[in-house]
Design brief:
The complex is a heterodimer of chains A (340) and B (279). Chain A is an alpha+beta fold and 340 residues long. Chain A has helices spanning 11-21, 96-109, 117-125, 174-177, 190-206, 217-222, 229-232, 241-245, 290-309, 319-323, 330-338, and strands at 3-7, 23-30, 33-38, 64-73, 76-81, 89-94, 126-131, 158-162, 166-171, 186-187, 252-259, 262-269. Chain A has two domains: 3-63 and 75-206, no CATH class; 217-338, no CATH class. Chain A is 31% helix and 22% strand. The longest helix of chain A has 20 residues, at 290-309. The two termini of chain B are 33 Å apart. Classes of the chains: A alpha+beta (340), B alpha/beta (279).
């Protein structure tokens, strides 16, 4: 595996150069927010920032995407299969927690029996450049509790670690190696590993939120009907913010839109927090109140995903903690469950 | 890469209004491309997403049997956006079908056993598929005795009436059709499905019960079969949940860790006992 050093102040220019050569998504300042956006001339990619408000999953699994289109014919309708064309792209500046979310989403969308061609095509064509967290940015960060880490490379093709004066550039996959030309620099040796290890140890120490996320699985297995589930949803507004900002939430709706003789079938992000999500035509709803919906959310992340894919569907980014309008805190929920 | 979201084009070749209330119709669909027909390999108990352009998709059990080549059939009650629109279309309409989806009735497990089929109301559709599959000349000897108990609220609400009459003539099916309440012309049996099951009292010896119907019917029928000695491993049913993708990704039809669309819809009672009761 190839390792190099690049000068710290050269990174911004290198990213802009990549954007001249092809499609680059990067974190940029947008008002008060940092958002991942398509980098166009004149835009400044951020290299030192906490984390983006939106999880970058939308570049593989957009909020809204066309699945197919169709036209009205004399006999009804004829469809014309449409695969949104996936373009070669670079997703720059992803934090390790969000990069890990791609590994988790791959488990669902890239299964052997039913591969999701829309997701898989974009994923295959996109090179992920990850920016390690040498100082985990938020008190709500808890990646180390869910199998992640501030300098983890899971899901990344290239990992950049800030070593002070320079970045250590690690090319982790063949896809990452294809971008070597953009990261020309001095070859890094074993000394880089030692330095990175020290930085990692320090960064891990700075993460103060530690929750028993992996320990609660057997408790969840046995407590579907526990009175605890009556407590967490009481103040939930069912706004769905947690699921929309979550890097691993993947639920979607499929709907049709028609205008004149042309129609499209779309998929849109959906949320288990919404009453309509499971409402059946008969009026029956297997998850009739916010209690069942919250139980589903907690169970899906910390039990069902573990049952199906042997992984927790949470990366510890803390977005749901930071942006919940009524301060529901998944860290507290997990900790409380551990005490049931 | 095969795209599991794209519907297969079909033409509606026949529409049968099944009941006197006219809100249950059977749609016969023929594939517009012959190779699609060859690729659409299914077993009784599976379902598909019926696709009506501009309206959306609706998951419906396949009512025909793979022993009936040339077409597939779906019996649909008029209920929501897609099914109501389906009830408006005419023969000759082009539409889409996406599938087959889900597991199936456990055909291999059923082989060599005596089969009891219990159905209520319009939930008889995939059971009809199973019956037609089992009584086909190529398959009949693979199964033991076949007992069918099928009930509807009134004679006018029985579906597949012509087929019921055909089956009644056969000596290799013990067919018991019942209605909750008959009318002046009804000469058959009257009584609720659980009561009729008790009267028919099929032996549990080397037998499996396949049951599908409204929850209230299932609730009162299961104790009858437990009393007859059927184990939970030998009672099989099919679940329904709101679905979109049908391939275990969109996240709404799970019961515990299992997706009804992908891991079901068919489960034994023993399997359901291990799941949460969130359906």
């Amino acid at each position: 595996m190839e390792k190099r050093y690049i000068k710290k102040d050269s990174l911004n220019g290198r990213v802009k150069k990549m954007a001249e050569a092809g499609l680059v998504y990067a974190p940029v300042k947008d008002g008060d927010n940092v958002l991942f956006q398509v980098l166009t001339p004149g835009m400044e990619p951020l290299t030192a920032y906490a984390n983006s408000k939106n999880a970058p999953k939308n570049f593989f699994f957009p909020h809204t995407e066309k699945l197919m289109k169709y036209t009205r014919t004399e006999k009804g309708m004829a469809f014309s299969g449409e695969l949104a064309e996936a373009r070669d792209a670079v997703l720059f500046g992803v934090r390790p927690c969000d990069a890990r979310s791609f590994v988790l989403l791959d488990m669902l969308f890239d299964q052997e029996k039913y591969r999701d061609p829309y997701y898989v095509a974009r994923r295959e064509k996109t090179t992920v450049i990850c920016l390690a967290c040498i100082h985990p940015p938020y008190t709500s960060c808890f990646c180390t509790s869910v199998d992640g880490g501030p300098t983890d490379a899971a899901g990344a093709d290239i990992l950049l670690t800030d070593l002070g004066e320079r970045y250590l550039v690690e090319f982790l996959t063949p896809k990452g190696e294809k971008l070597e030309a953009h990261f020309a620099g001095e070859k890094a040796g074993d000394e880089a590993d030692a330095q990175k290890q020290a930085i990692t140890a320090q960064a891990e120490q700075e993460i103060t939120s530690r929750i028993p996320a992996k320990e609660i699985k057997p408790i969840l297995d046995a407590n579907f009907e526990h009175p605890f589930w009556n407590t967490i949803h009481q103040k939930c507004l069912a706004c769905g913010t947690c699921t929309y900002l979550c890097p691993t939430c993947h639920c979607f709706d499929i709907s049709d839109e028609q205008k004149g003789d042309d129609g499209i079938r779309l998929r849109n992000w959906d949320s288990c927090m919404f009453p309509l999500f499971t409402l059946e035509t008969s009026g029956h709803n297997p998850r009739p109140t916010q209690k069942e919906r919250w139980r589903q959310r907690a169970m899906h992340k910390f039990k069902y995903y573990v049952d199906n894919f042997s992984a927790i569907a949470c990366v510890g980014c803390g977005r749901c903690v930071m942006y919940c309008p009524v301060n529901i805190d998944i860290r507290k929920i997990v900790t409380d469950i551990s005490k049931l | 890469m095969q795209n599991p979201y794209l519907p297969i084009p079909v033409v509606v070749s026949k529409i049968i209004t099944e009941v006197e209330t006219k809100d249950i119709k059977t749609f016969r669909l023929e594939f517009l491309n012959k190779e699609d027909e060859a690729n659409f390999k299914y077993l009784p108990g599976q379902f598909a997403e019926l696709s009506l352009y501009g309206k959306g998709e609706s998951p419906i059990g396949i009512a025909s049997s793979p022993t009936q080549p040339g077409y597939i059939e779906f019996t649909v009650q008029k209920a929501g956006v897609v099914t109501s629109s389906l009830h408006e279309i005419e023969e000759g309409t082009h539409m889409g079908v996406r599938g087959p989806l889900g597991n199936s009735w456990p055909i291999e497990y059923l082989e060599g056993k005596n089969i009891v089929v219990v159905g209520g109301g319009f939930a008889f559709t995939t059971l009809r598929s199973l019956i037609n599959y089992m009584i086909h000349d190529d398959n009949r000897k693979r199964f033991g005795s076949i007992t069918v108990i099928y009930g509807a609220r009134t004679p006018g609400l029985l579906i597949y009436k012509d087929e019921l009459a055909e089956w009644q003539k056969r000596s290799d099916i013990n067919l018991n059709v019942t209605v909750d309440k008959g009318d002046a012309s009804w000469k058959g049996r009257e009584g609720f499905v659980p009561t009729v099951c008790k009267e028919v009292a099929p032996s549990s010896e080397n037998a499996v019960t396949v049951i599908c119907g409204p929850p209230v019917m299932i609730r009162f029928t299961l104790p009858v079969f437990f009393d007859l000695g059927f184990s939970k491993e030998n009672i099989v049913t099919s679940l329904e949940m709101r679905m979109k993708c049908g391939i275990g990704k969109c996240g709404r039809c799970n019961v515990g860790s299992k997706y009804v669309c992908k891991d079901g819809p068919v489960f034994t009672l023993a399997e359901l006992d291990k799941l949460t009761k969130e359906y």
